[in-house]
Design goal:
With 93 residues, the protein is mainly α. It is built from 4 helices and no strands. The longest helix has 15 residues.
């Protein structure tokens, strides 16, 4: 119950949001398996971190590519280590 929202209003809200929320019961995990959230890749995390720090998307992508090229045999680096390495690359430009 929400003050100010009657039966018809609630039905309309549910009807409009049903595609975004999923089936009833899934929203709160009732009777459904928990949804698996995929972790963003280290590349996405590092690139997002660089753009949030003010670097352009193009510069961030170039720095991430340079860090990836230096990684040993495709080994997945730690996000913190990769971010520091990318910042070092960008500071040399």
């Amino acid at each position: 119950m929400v003050p100010g929202i009657g039966r018809k209003g609630a039905q309309r809200i549910v009807l409009e949001l049903k595609d975004r929320l999923g089936a009833p019961g899934e929203v709160f995990g009732i009777g459904a398996a928990p949804a698996r959230k995929t972790e963003p890749s280290w590349r996405d995390q590092v690139q997002s971190g660089l753009t949030n720090l003010g670097w352009s998307a193009r510069d961030a992508e170039a720095a991430v590519a340079a860090v990836e090229a230096e990684s040993d045999g495709g080994e997945v680096p730690d996000v913190g280590t990769a971010l520091r390495a990318a910042l070092r690359k960008l500071s040399k430009q």
